Amino acid sequence: MMMRRLLVLTLVLLGLTAVWPKPSAAKPDTPTMINAAPVWGNFEDLSEAATGDSTRPYVQAAPNGTDITVVFTSQTGGDTARNPYFNTSTDNGDTWNGMQPIRTSGTPSSNVQFTYDSAGKRHAVWIETIDPGAALVYKRDDSAWGLDGTAVFTITENVVTPLLFSPQIVASGGSFLDIIWAQGDLANPSIYHARSKDNGSNWASSAITITLPTSGSPALAVDANGVLHAVWEEAVGGGLSVIYYAQGAPDSSDNITWSNVVRISDRAVPAITSAKQPDIATAGTTLYVSFADRVAEDDQRVYQLVCSAACATLANWTSANNPITTQSLGVKANDPFDISSTIVRSKNCTYVYYHGSIAGLGNDNEMVLGTNSCDNWAASPMDQVTVTNVRSIFPVMTAPDNGGQIYLVFEQVSESASSIVFTKNGVRVFLPVILKN
User: Fold this and answer.
1) CA–CA gap between residue 401 and residue 279 (Å, rounded)
2) CA 244 remoteness from chain centre
3) pLDDT score, position 116
């Protein structure tokens, strides 16, 4: 009896838990288990009907708690060019309805993003190539997106200066939509903002700030008070770049007034060399930002910064446990040239996942890797989500309502084509341990 009690007590002290195992298709080369890391489920190909490459996915969950949509650009047999597509699940990602076009324009499209509003309506924005230049276009899902015949709204036609990229869109307050993007000539693109106060029927746009010499890779979030938070990458000369932040607060007429820009990457400890590809998440009014520090192609690490209040003041940004990656990472090709990260909050933990290659694994293919605050970042091994026989790049996560569910999408590149892959975390099952006298 004493031996049994000691064994049970030992299990309690060790915090032994039972978890759903990873399926064989998702096992990393060297399996690791981190206490708070997601237990990723099966991989689903959401672009299996495509006849060409499918690229740059983005995922969001609807407010009803069951619907998920993934958007991406792709091409099928009837397309004359790559178009924006979507694939929807109505059962939390267990099954999918198949890829459908948001719009078939006949001109090449790229950089598609979308958001759900509070009523569950979807709003998409993307870039369409026109002759000459490019256009930033928006489309609301009034019934079935690509099948409903709803016309697109052109936010801007960037004809004279053809550089137009990286739109981001968020919804707030029932009828407000906000978009940011990079726009300008090759020497001096700036970050722009557009707002709709009537759920996408009308738009007004202007530059957030005139920035030199090059602004790009913007990310946008909205907090619980309807305040906008934008971060982006800014070149500073010599091939180096930093991360800027600006806050957009609605005035009494619901127009957005932007703060002065703040160079938040200066708060990183240890100091960074060249900050790249930021992402931003909110929890209440607290901000969480991730980005990569690029020293060289095969020497990149991921950082994270946090701000809880008055974030337009540089001193209020904090840096702890950086870099959050356990070792240097690399990239295989010029697309992507830098590490790209995605950051979410779930169950009061901060999760950051990213793509990167690790020296010594036999090839240079990027994998999807991750870490989290509840495992003390780099103090624990990285969570390796994908294997190295194919490239896995551009991960994006969403974690609705801090409820523990995390959805992950990424682009998987094989020798024949690029596809869009979805997975989600499983449910951890904690076994009760009962002590008996």
Assistant:
1) 18
2) 18
3) 97
Q: Is residue 424 part of a domain?
A: yes
Q: Is residue 17 part of a domain?
A: yes
Q: What single string gives the DSSP state of each residue in 73-114?
A: EE--TT-SS-EEEEEEESSTTSS----EES---SS-EEEEEE
Is 368 inside any structural domain? yes
Q: Compute the 3-state secondary structure of the chain and give helix, strand, coil in percent, each to the nearest 5.
A: 10, 45, 45
Q: What are phi and psi of 89, to 5 degrees?
A: -115, 140
Give pLDDT, residue 414.
Answer: 86
Cα separation, 421 vs 149, in Å, equals 28
Where do we find the tokens 């929807």?
88
Q: How far apart are CA 411 and CA 326, in angstroms?
A: 23
Query: How far is C-alpha 285 from the geometric centre of its chain's CA atoms?
Result: 19
> Could you tell me the pTM of the whole model?
0.89
In a domain, 83, yes or no: no
- For 258, other C-beta atoms within 10 Å of its C-beta total 18
Q: CB-based contacts of 315: which residues, under 8 Å, 6+ apart?
A: none
What local confidence, expressed as pLDDT, does residue 162 receive?
63
- What residue ranges of the chain have pLDDT lower than 50? 1-33, 429-433, 435-437
Task: For residues 177 and 193, give the distance between their C-alpha atoms in angstroms, rounded to a whole number.
Answer: 11
For 170, the token pair is 């968020």
What's the token pair of residue 79?
A: 């397309």
CA distances from 107 to 58, 138, 289, 338 (A): 21, 15, 34, 28
Contact, 422 vs 43, CB < 8 A?
A: yes
Cβ atoms within 10 Å, residue 16: 11
Tokens describing residue 78: 């009837």
pLDDT tens-place string over residues 316-336: 999 999 999 989 999 987 778
Candidates 396, 408, 409, 145; CA nearest to 280 is 396
- 142 close to 124: Cβ distance less than 8 angstroms: no
Range of the domain at 354: 1-47+332-437
Tokens of 402: 């801090």
In whole angstroms, what is the distance from residue 80 CA to residue 51 CA? 11
Type of residue numbered 400: P
Q: How much is the pLDDT for 149?
A: 60
The size of the chain, in residues, is 437
Q: How many domains does the structure of the chain reveal? A: 1
DSSP label at residue 332: S
